[in-house]
Amino acid sequence: MTVTDAAETVALLEEHIRAGAELPVLLMTTAHLTGDYALLTPGRRPGVVFGKLRCEVEPDEREAILADCAERLRGFLAAGAPVPPLTFDVLHRIAAWAVGKEIEPFVPLLAEEMVLGSQDPRRPGWSKARIAPDRPFSVGIVGGGESGIIAAIRLAQAGIPYTLYEKNAALGGTWLENRYPGCRVDINSYVYSYASAPAAWPEYFGQQPEVLAYLQDVARQHGVEERTRFGCAVQAARWDEAASAWELRLADDGGEAVRTHQAVIFAVGQLNRPALPDIPGRDDFAGPAFHSARWDHDAALDGKDVGVIGTGASACQFIPKVAERAGSVRVFARTTTWLLPTPELHEALPDSALWLMANLPAYRQWYRASMLMMQGPGLLDRITHDPAYPASERAISESNDALRASLQGWIEAQIADRPDLRDALIPDSPVGAKRILRDNGSWIRALRRDNLRVVRTRIERIVPDGLVTTDGEHHRLDALIYGTGFQAARFLQPMTITGRGGVDLHEHWGENPRAYLGLTVPNFPNMFVMYGPNTNLVVHGGSIILFSELSAKYILGAIRCLLDADARSLEVRGDIHETYNARVDATNARRAWGWSGVSSWYKNGEGRVTQNFPFTIAEYWQRTDRFEPGEYLLR
Ligand code: NAP
Q1: Total structural domains in the chain?
Q2: Paired sense of beta strands 263-266 and 328-332, if any
Q3: Best of 146, 179, 214, 309 for a ligand 1 pocket test (most atoms within 8 Å of beta carbon)
Q4: What is this structure's pTM?
Q5: Separation of 159 CA from ligand 1 center, angstroms?
Q6: Residues 475 and 499 both lie in one domain
Q7: What is the average per-residue pLDDT within 43-58?
């Protein structure tokens, strides 16, 4: 979208506001730029309707608001005044209006997320140049997905030498590996992107090639590729006490090698090792069989009888595409998942919305903020167990039940004539127990197709020409696709990681990986895990990219502390780690994903929630904003 000059912007403003503005975003932007908070009346306060902020006003009032905002903004732009800074007071007044409840803890996070101009509040405000020049110090980053990339950028900004080790031939992580048909983000792209690296996303929910190109582009701008060893898998990491350094054992085309770094950041994600189901006969299937993250684009699917195991976030994106080509599709659905109605899921932004993002100062920032606000402070409450409520697998609180009713109503309206699909679409677990999927109706339409059948009966075994379910039915198949997810709870596997005193990380963790803030583990000095245990966001608002940005800020704070103190090692205190994790477990047990007995990748084999972050995202901001040396042992 081209950026227009000031006079042209003034001339075109009203036209684009009428054609492309979202009312809550427009009101917030106008109040911010003009300082006229009287615009933000209680009657105009937006509500959250199916995951989006909306002002429920009559058409006449809507017209009046659009015209009023356009006039005020024309005045602001014509005067050529600078964009007012986003002070705490400005953010607080506007966010409190939008969310309608006390939002104070959320405001500093918003301030960082709404990067105006070239400011980058999360850029480290220090440089290694201050540190004694004779001290050897470099960082090894393992993994070049979204978290490894932001860690690399921040280290470079602080002048800390690093090498990034990436097993693939290119950066991008999960967005490089997942290339199945229909793959796209299911978090709005204007939030699923780095705060300081905005992009003009043409669609609300960017498709895989665009997301990959974006990540690689940002990395390229910061010289990350030049410092990356591609095709290089880290097999083992060992803390060398005498040298106060990590020895990384690497394997690439040239064989094995050892590299030493004083600190290591594991940025390998939670969702990169495909999980194949342990079903008897799996290796016997004669036709093409592959996992969604290892899509076989050469496999013949056109006109074929295709079986799909799984109905998670990946499967609900690729099944509609496969069903368009296949002769028949059988979907083996063990459990089902709630759907969040999202009409714009496959839509491009109107040209006028893109114009406003590019030309109306702060509009893009308020749009991003609105995405955070709509979920941030409130939705967690609605998926939390109320001890006074007769909780069941139907609902765990009154507001959880109301949420169920609204989602169920939306589904039922589309299958009134197909009661056979109720069982496949209406979960028997509370909203929030499993990951909520987005749908614009295309998933439900796919399940309604004549060539698709949903099978709820359990699979007994896989045979050369299909599957046999426990009711004895033989499902003849030409191809089999596993949409069966990832080995999420097996953090940092298959690497061998040995810490202080020869402690093996996987033996130490067993089935229960834990870390302080998801980032640091006692006995593993100078080691950081990004997207580590209990850092997965569900209904918190934001995206994993936001979490990675906060984690990277914290890690840089830790490294600064280490260097400033001229200490050799830094390691989280056991008591701090234990107290934090006790709170994590207690809080997770109250959330729908911990309370419900339904299966999900949020839990380990013992039913403990190992993946999800239980607190608000504002709390993660507070806890990671400042590195607290008192919580660590510096040696
Ligand atoms: P998933 O959510 O873990 O879903 C796996 C599916 O396979 C579930 O339906 C599961 O059934 C089924 N399954 C697993 N083992 C089975 C077995 N032995 N027999 C029968 N069914 C079995 O995996 P995913 O869909 O790949 O998604 C994983 C995560 O990746 C998502 O939750 C999301 O965080 C991320 N993701 C994001 C996007 C996006 O942003 N667009 C897209 C894809 C994935 P049960 O439910 O009964 O266990």
Answers
A1: 3
A2: unpaired
A3: 309
A4: 0.96
A5: 40
A6: no
A7: 84
Interatomic CA distance for residues 539 and 632, integer angstroms: 31
**Number of neighbours of residue 357 by Cβ within 10 angstroms:** 22
- Give the CA distances from residue 514 to residues 250, 457, 490, 584, in Å, rounded to whole numbers and listed in that order: 25, 35, 11, 10
190 lies in the same domain as 249: yes
Angstrom distance (rounded) from CA 318 to CA 308: 10
**Confidence check: pLDDT of 323 > 80:** yes
Q: How far is the CA of 208 from the centre of ligand 1 (A)?
A: 18
Is residue 504 one of the residues assigned to a domain? yes
Same domain, yes or no: 599 and 510: yes
Cα of 602 vs centre of ligand 1, distance in Å, is 10
> Is residue 380 in a domain?
no
With a cut of 90, say whether residue 461 has pLDDT above it.
yes
Specify the pLDDT at position 24: 96
Domain identity same for 26 and 87:
yes
State the pairing for strand pair 466-469/474-476: antiparallel
The encoded tokens of residue 400 equal: 């959880």
Closest residue by Cα to atom 4, ligand 1, is 312
Which helix H or strand E contains 498, and what residues bound it? strand 496-498
Residues 107 and 251 in one domain: no
What confidence score (pLDDT) does residue 496 get?
98
- Within 10 A of 243 (CB to CB), how many other CB atoms are there? 12
- d(C-alpha 410, C-alpha 295), whole Å: 32
% of the chain exceeding 70 in pLDDT? 98
User: Is it the case that residue 140 has pLDDT exceeding 60?
Assistant: yes
**What range defines the domain where residue 402 resides?**
282-338+387-482
Handedness of CA 75, 78, 80, 86 (dihedral sign): positive
On whether the CB atoms of residues 470 and 457 are closer than 8 A, the answer is yes
CATH code at position 208: 3.50.50.60
- Examine residue 602 and state whether it is found in any structural domain, yes or no: yes
Nearest to 28 by CA among 102, 110, 109, 137: 110
Question: How does pLDDT run across 169-210, given as a tens digit for each residue?
Answer: 999 999 999 999 999 999 999 999 999 999 999 999 999 999
pLDDT in tens, 566-601: 999 999 999 999 999 999 999 999 999 999 999 899
Contact 496, 469 (CB under 8 A): no
Distance CA 332, CA 309 (A): 5
Check residue 517 and report its DSSP letter.
Answer: T
Give me ligand 1 centre to Cα 385, in Å: 24
Shared-domain flag, residues 26 and 140: no
> Where among 449, 466, 482 does a domain terminate?
482
Examine the pLDDT at 377 and tell me if it is beyond 60. Answer: no
- Each residue's pLDDT tens digit, 122-139: 999 888 766 677 888 999
Q: Do residues 236 and 495 make contact, with C-beta atoms less than 8 angstroms apart?
A: yes
